[in-house]
Amino acid sequence: MTQEEPFVRPTARAVIIDPDSRVLLFRVSNPNGDGRIFWITPGGGVQGAESYEEAIRREIWEETGVSEFQLGPCIWERTATSRFSTRWIQFVERYFVAWAPHAEVSAENREAAELTFLEGHRWFSLDELRAHPERVVPKDLASLVEPILRGELPAEPLAVE
Questions:
Q1: In a designed cystine with 76, which of 18, 39, 154, 160 is the match (CB 3.0 to 4.6 A)?
Q2: What's 152's DSSP letter?
Q3: Cα(93)–Cα(150) distance, rounded to whole angstroms?
Q4: Domain 7-159 fold
């Protein structure tokens, strides 16, 4: 059995940090029915001629309802291929750091498809991330976020898994 060519999806993601130094993640159940559960940062596909930065500004508003935030630089890059819903997708991700002035999240602006697989959200402290039993993407997120919380941003985006 051969795997079809994956659809390449440029994706912008946000590491949103609240005033209590917590990171926002969404719980996702893979719509392909394989039962996989994982936690991801807000974000989504780059549309048309959008830049990654334009896409993440739009995605933060769509997925969280947060319209006031301070967007920082791209801090990480990640490429991963997986079966999501009915097709193989190669996610070409850029992660931006963003600081939100509050922790209120709204699903009001989400697209219909997002409502089918985004099952909930939670703000995680570093200790909670380290102890969380379900899969978190990217891998070792707590270790990656720790220097960001100290104000240590990479000069160039780091490759993450």
A1: 160
A2: -
A3: 24
A4: Nucleoside Triphosphate Pyrophosphohydrolase (3.90.79)
* Prediction pTM value: 0.93
In whole angstroms, give the CA distance from residue 140 to residue 32: 25
Domain ranges of the chain: 7-159
- Residue 134: burial class (beta carbons within 10 Å; 0-12, 13-18, 19+): exposed
Query: What are 12's two structure tokens?
Result: 């912008």
pLDDT tens for the chain, 161 residues: list them. Answer: 456 899 999 999 999 999 999 999 999 987 777 778 899 999 999 999 999 999 999 999 999 999 999 999 999 999 999 888 788 999 999 999 999 998 799 988 887 777 667 889 999 999 999 999 999 999 999 999 999 999 999 999 999 99
Q: Are 40 and 25 in contact (CB under 8 A)?
A: yes
Beta strands at 70-84 and 158-159: parallel, antiparallel or unpaired: parallel
Task: Report the C-alpha gap between 84 and 73 in whole angstroms.
Answer: 28
For residue 113, the SS3 value is helix
